[in-house]
Design brief:
Number of domains: 2
Order of helices and strands: HHEEEEEHEEEEEEHHEE
Distance between the termini: 51 Å
Strand content: 15-25%
Number of helices: 5
Radius of gyration: 23 Å
Structural class: alpha+beta
Helix content: 25-40%
Number of strands: 13
């Protein structure tokens, strides 16, 4: 579904006149201005706030040069994964230590004091790494990129630019999110629509990253945590 077809589907449900275009004469069309803002908000909310969708995960490798200690984040960087580390090529068994407090980071630099595996922090749109990496050393980490819209003209973006652009995830999620949010903003009953959206979102999240399969009492996925490490009793 394109942006236009999604907006048309929402309009048909919420009782608004179905448009033939979202962008045509949008400057003079208050309703379509609201729908465009709602579409962008819902698309970004689903893409960035609900989970680390596999479709939006990327990784970056930073190359040391013996001098640089601060590296610019990727241009499409949105945020780190909820569970992610920065790894140094000189250590594949233990990630670098994250120092979240800027004051502590500066204090450790003045001492000087550095964790044996290396340290990193985010500051001023850059990732800072200590000790400084030599020319043969790299650091790498995963992140969520910010471009959740497929442009009809080609490429990707973080907002809709044309009627024919489309949401990178299931457009039904976008339609359901826009429907309940529009009703809520207009003071109409929306609880059932919110419930429908929540059910669809949970289904999509489950399919995006299925639960690991347990075989012979052993976790099939390395990401699985063992809660009961003993054989399960059977009747």
């Amino acid at each position: 579904m394109s942006l236009l077809s999604t907006v048309q589907a929402v309009c048909a449900v919420v009782g608004v006149e179905v448009p033939t275009s979202v962008f045509t004469n949008i400057t003079y069309n208050r309703t379509m201005t609201e729908f465009l803002a709602l579409a962008n908000e819902c698309a970004q909310r689903i893409a960035y706030d609900t989970r680390d969708w596999t479709k939006f995960r990327k990784s970056v490798t930073l190359q040391g040069d013996g001098v640089t200690s601060a590296f610019d984040l990727p241009a499409d960087f949105k945020r780190m994964l909820l569970k992610s580390n920065v790894w140094r090529s000189t250590s594949t068994l233990e990630p670098m230590k994250f120092v979240p407090d800027t004051d502590e980071w500066l204090n450790r630099r003045s001492m000087p004091l550095t964790d044996a595996w290396g340290e990193w922090t985010n500051m001023n749109g850059q990732i800072h790494i200590q000790p400084i990496m030599g020319p043969t050393v790299t650091a790498y980490f995963p992140y969520v990129h910010k471009n959740c819209i497929n442009l009809f003209s080609g490429g990707i973006n973080d907002a809709f630019m044309d009627d024919r652009d489309s949401f990178a995830l299931d457009e039904r999620l976008l339609k359901l999110c826009m429907t309940w949010q529009w009703k809520a903003q207009k003071g109409s009953p929306y609880q059932e629509d919110l419930s429908n959206y929540g059910d669809a979102l949970m289904q999509a999240m489950g399919h995006d990253s299925p639960a690991p399969i347990i075989l012979q009492g052993k976790p099939y996925s390395w990401g699985t945590k063992v809660a009961y490490p003993f054989p399960v009793p059977t009747p």
